[in-house]
Amino acid sequence: MINVMAPLLEVRGLIVELPTAAGWVRPVNEVSLSISAGESLGLVGESGSGKTMLSLALMGLLPLGARVSGEASLATEASTKSLMALGEREWRDVRGGEIAMVFQEPMTSLNPVMRIGAQIEETIRAHHPKLSANEVKRKAVDSLRRAAVPEPEARAEQFPHQLSGGLRQRAMIAMALAAGPRLLFADEPTTALDVTVQKQILDLLDGLRRELKLGLLFITHDLGVVAQVAERVAVMYAGRIIEEGPVRNVLAKPLHPYTQGLLRSSPTLKRGALMPIPGAVPQLIALPPGCAFEPRCDLRRAECAAEIPALRTSGGDHAARCILV
Description:
Blueprint: E1 9-20, E2 23-35, E3 40-44, H1 51-58, E4 67-75, E5 80-82, H2 88-94, E6 99-102, H3 106-109, H4 116-127, H5 133-146, H6 152-156, H7 165-177, E7 183-187, H8 195-212, E8 215-220, H9 223-229, E9 232-237, E10 240-246, H10 247-252, H11 257-264, E11 312-313, E12 319-320
Parallel strand pairs: 3-8, 3-9, 6-7, 7-8
Antiparallel strand pairs: 1-2, 1-4, 4-5, 9-10, 10-12, 11-12
């Protein structure tokens, strides 16, 4: 059995490089993180910060030509697997069986010409080929029921276009968990859903994490969403983790100017006008020599442009990649 103190997923110095016409770029640059069984980690950042590319690297779904270095290990009941050393055949066992992913837009992730139940059954058969047809069908319906899909037997016979956005996302969650993975990646699963449905999906994921002792990596650009589902948060910018720590600490007293800017630009009931962060995330092909946030930072110093800051701890396990810490 796994030591309960050991992380379920441990990533150390992970680098992903992609070829472009202008040269190699690093959408994921020396990222380190860990997730334990039953723990939720929120990964926050603007579009283009590398959040999704990180999750794809940990699922073995990078585009052709990508180069990967660093370490990523997954603790299983029998052993510890090095994800970066897996071949495609081994990845097929890990995907769905050990690690599953809920993608951002279910309408583009679900097969439009297959019934919902058939798609879930396909996942179950891939990892449990010895089950009978009746057992597979029963497990598919049970997965829909676990994902709080009403009338799961009837919904299993419907096509994706016959379901609402919230039900499609629940079906995606049911499919992700059907084969019994222990680690779940949720990539902006509440995008384009109305506020009430968004709250239901967040509560569902949080409840399933606690019930099934899942490790959960929740990817979002919204710090308010992270506060509802995550215990720890890592803020990502231009491919690097620039702040990490317990959610309460990071939201109450953010250390990095970028995290402070994200909070100021989030709508609240108390504050009137929003304060957007000036500028945009830098192009990966032309990153500044020092801190990647330096060109947009109101608190920048001359030394900020000299070299990339190291992660500095400010008491406990709250740290930020900033010289002001």
